[in-house]
Amino acid sequence: NFPxxxxxxxxxxxxxxxxxxxxxxxxxxxxxxxxxxxxxxVLIGDQQRIDTAHASCSKHGIKMLCVRPERELGADVDEWxxxxxxxxxxxxxxxxxxxxxxxxxxxxxxxxxxxxxxxHRAVLSALMAFSARNAVLKLASDEPEAPADPxxxxxxxxxxxxxxxxxxxxxxxxxxxxxKLVIMFKWDAGKALPxxxxxxxxxxVGVPTQSFDLVNHxxxxxxxxxxxRAVGGGGAPAPAALVDKVDKAVKKGSPQxxxxxxxxxxxxxxxxxxxxxxxxxxxxxxxxxxxxxxxxPETFKTLGPxxxxxxxxxxxxxxxxxxxxxxxxxxxxxxGWLRTGDGGYIDDEGFLFIKDRIKDMILxxxxxxxxxxxxxxxYEHPAVHEVAVFxxxxxxxxxxxxxxxxxxxxxxxxxHELWQFLDGKISSFKVPNHVVIMNEPLxxxxxxxxxxxxxxxxxxxxxxxxxxx
Length: 469
Known about the structure:
Layout: H1 3-14, E1 19-21, H2 28-38, E2 42-46, H3 47-60, E3 63-67, E4 77-79, H4 80-83, E5 100-106, E6 114-119, H5 120-140, E7 154-157, H6 164-177, E8 180-183, H7 189-199, E9 203-206, H8 208-216, E10 230-233, H9 240-249, E11 254-258, E12 270-272, H10 273-278, E13 282-285, E14 291-295, E15 309-314, E16 321-322, H11 326-332, E17 333-334, E18 337-346, E19 351-357, E20 361-364, E21 367-370, H12 371-379, E22 384-394, E23 398-407, H13 415-422, E24 434-437, H14 452-461, E25 467-468
Parallel strand pairs: 1-5, 2-3, 3-4, 7-8, 7-9, 9-10, 10-11, 23-24
Antiparallel strand pairs: 5-6, 6-16, 11-12, 13-19, 14-15, 15-18, 17-18, 18-19, 20-21, 22-23, 24-25
């Protein structure tokens, strides 16, 4: 998170080009795929990202612009400070609302990330919808209206700008409303606390892991956090105990949760204040212009209150589809409705509850990890016969990655050998923290699919022993 990221975003969008956000955790192979898939013409990054993608950019004729270089640059890399000029008037560009504006890559169910494409209309609709939702939640509250707040609204940026949360509801919301945005290069609760105190931050938007880090930090009570009005965000459900702790720790603010995703530009049902503390397992109610329905995942029929099914969303803030992936677009967006892949129900009062994940996915600290991608990387090891990747509970991160492996007959593999094998092959946050080496075939159902829930339960009970790091 550098200020130059925001400047680059504004410049790219204002000339009618498409801003493509890359995950800073990506390996060289992952960068290479996204550069080719997106058809990027210019890569703007810091020294580490330029180094990672240099070979790919050179191979594909992509120009490179380095922000804050740490050493002398080669002739094929330009320096940001020498290219960017101040005082130039805005360029006039012919941009329509339905032109493509952004591509954010989201983990792919087939092992490669998919580029989620949003138009200018979709991004603007999400920004306006966030404002409308906040107003509705405030009007619906039974709490007495507070006196004039001595602290003007402000945000601390604690999530990556390459994620939809950092880009749309945090960065662009501040743009739209003219609010102060204080940027953290990288999340660190110990460094965030003095910033909150000194800058009188009112809005703390991240993933539950970061709320956990904040209120559980040993120095939390040493700092004045009385300016905070909202603490929470999205990316994953928050444990009920964390909701209660945030509510008690943040004296003049309240916990909040939003249920959105890359495909909705982060917008969705939201919960805050007494609504949230009374229903800590709910993500709140949908507000217009978004519609949320529960559909039968097989027939796509709309289900009634309290009936479990797939959560589906409809509204102008949805992506138009996936870049170069008409198959994935048709599978995910049906008659204008986005199939989230999450299972849940809406109660009689309209509150949404997320109960299951239809997609084979792990949510680790707000990062989506598709099991099939990790399994594919592990299957490349010559000693591996069967692999099942699954999530196990973690107090701080929500979930961690675990794997059960059956080696080929006559072969063996250890957890340390696996970790060494995966180093640089997939992003570090996707590498399993817990490894179970099996001496018998992995359990399967009648259809031949691995019983990952059973494996997770067996690890949780200690019946299967995992080597962890």
